[in-house]
Amino acid sequence: MTIWRRNRSWLWPALFIAPGIILFGIVIVGSSVQSLWISFFQWDGFDEMQWIGLGNYIEMLDDPQFYISLRNNIIWLAVFMLAPPLGLFFALLINQQIRGMRIVKSLFFMPLVMSQVAVGVVFTWFYDPSSGLLALFFEAMGATAPALLSDPRWVTLAVVFAALWPQVSFCVILFMAGLNNLDESQIEAARVDNAKGWKMLWYVILPQLRQVNFIAIAVTVIGALRSFDMISVMTSGGPFGSSNVLAYQMYSQSIQAYRFGYGAAIASVLFAIMVVFISWYLWRMLRMEKEGA
Questions:
Q1: What is the CATH class of 75-237?
Q2: Cα–Cα–Cα angle for 274, 277, 279, nearest 5°?
Q3: Which sequence spans correspond to the domains of the chain?
Q4: Model-level pTM?
Q5: Which of 21, 31, 52, 201 is most buried, by the most CB atoms less than 10 A from its CB?
Q6: Could you confirm whether the keyword Chloroplast appears in this record (predicted)?
Q7: SS3 content of the chain, % helix, strand, coil (to 5)
């Protein structure tokens, strides 16, 4: 009891944190290490694993589909970078005290309530070149709607913009929370100094939203790198693998082609990319806290 009383200031928090740490270690760390280990084998998931060393990684470097998936991940990342500024724009817009704005706010909550699968189904109907809303719009303009999900040139952008809708809504919620926690004294002081419009936004509001903006960018980047649901629902990686990303290629190689070793190698590369970003994210976050202190 004496030991417990002396150390209870940190023992109680440790007891509450321990289950989460254990679960994280088993589910995340353990699975990641096992996946890395499997990537050095040739394995169909049933028979005995055969050691091939770096064979899967060497094959990956010669696989054209890997580079298509990597390029598509870069496209996802580039387009998703529109989410934070659009989220800030809409958050500033709907944060105004205007009649009927509560209804507009509810429209931005809707994509967050819907699952990614539901969003994918809705946009699949929207892109339908025969009876979708896009087809009706082109018909009203006297033109023929393109089959975006069947065209290798446009399919990736079509899927990305469908996924961008809920991502923008998520950023809107983040920035609205940040706007509600602004320091009113700084805003009032800026108004006394006749600051308004762009100057108010750039010099007063945005500095206070720095941490929120950083979180929005981090979540957006991770969402772009782990994109899977929308591709699975809308295209299944097609046509001819043109909309594949690393996460879906990992799934198709492991579950559909029974090449768990090669799928694990792709997963390891994707994990390495995310580790680099997360490491940079943590370094920047710690640096911001030191500057704030």
A1: mainly alpha
A2: 105
A3: 75-237
A4: 0.88
A5: 52
A6: no
A7: 75, 0, 25
